[in-house]
Amino acid sequence: MKVSVLFSGGKDSALAAILLEPLFEVELVTCTFSLLSNGSIGSEAAEKLEMRHRIVCLENSILDDAYQIIVQDGFPKNALNYIHLSALKTLAEEKNTKFIADGVRRDDRVPRLNNSQIRSLEDKYSISYISPLGGYGRSAVNALVDKHLLIHEDKSENLAKADYEAELREKIACEIGGDAVKELFPPHVQSRIIERIK
Amino acid sequence: MKVSVLFSGGKDSALAAILLEPLFEVELVTCTFSLLSNGSIGSEAAEKLEMRHRIVCLENSILDDAYQIIVQDGFPKNALNYIHLSALKTLAEEKNTKFIADGVRRDDRVPRLNNSQIRSLEDKYSISYISPLGGYGRSAVNALVDKHLLIHEDKSENLAKADYEAELREKIACEIGGDAVKELFPPHVQSRIIERIK
Q1: Are B143 and A128 inside 8 Å of each other by CB?
Q2: Which of A25, B53, B68, B136 might form a disulfide with A2, Cβ 3.0–4.6 angstroms?
Q3: Is the pTM of this model over 0.90?
Q4: So what's the ipTM on this one?
């Protein structure tokens, strides 16, 4: 059974893939709007996990819509959730897809699908959506990450990572400047994997 | 890292244990009020999984309280959730426990802990609570069960299974008769594992 796992090169999506590996044929997928080098960052991180990887280019209209949402809202939650759901839909509508997965944890608020979005995604595309970390809290995730991954953590603006946030930040910086990015995104720490511990 | 997994001998707790097995030292735990032969049913099922197993006797006051709750409510949800949380607390307060787990799925409504119960359980006992199937829906669980387990499914009243529901039904039958059991529990299908497919 093949599963396509949305992969940012961060610890959560890496750990999700490690949890799935014994039971599925795992394929990591980095989605990108080709605005930054997300594809190659994802590809390098996937090599460190020794897992199959491919890059999927998302339609630019998704980033345009997300930009409109974040500028209107004044905060990133809905825009990031919109990109996340759009990326899952893009995978779900590919031929022969049966299982798609992501790195969403039990306590995550962004990105997160609500119950009706999950039901709609699974029913419309006849796929199963899995969040391997959906029943894991922060302490369990950290314990497993410590055991299986060497990671680098830093503030999101300092870290090259293959996630939508980086490209949405870049889009905002291009459109209305770097100050707007600081206003719209609260500072937070992100991670990138350096090595898999075996 | 050792994890204690609440184990009823049904497909969900068995699959939860299978998911944890590559990453943890798994110990299956069947909790019982010693009213039925739950302990030995759990033990036999654990042998089929080739996993370590032990039986924990829960305090009878928990069953008494659950009985009061279901009779007052007229439906089983709160009573079963109460026993489930009590069983998790019993494991959590054991010495040297770091990780406890169960077979709760994404779509389960009973048993299920709410967010504040999870936070309280983890903080009070300094443990991590994991639901390995918390991010898996019905279709993904069924696909994995088909691949890894031979199971027998039947209506709950016909199936000998090492879960709290069986003992709560027995308690009600003893106290106020079998008709009350039928009134209080809606008919539903449960599972018991026959064999692990390797």
Answers
A1: yes
A2: A25
A3: yes
A4: 0.95
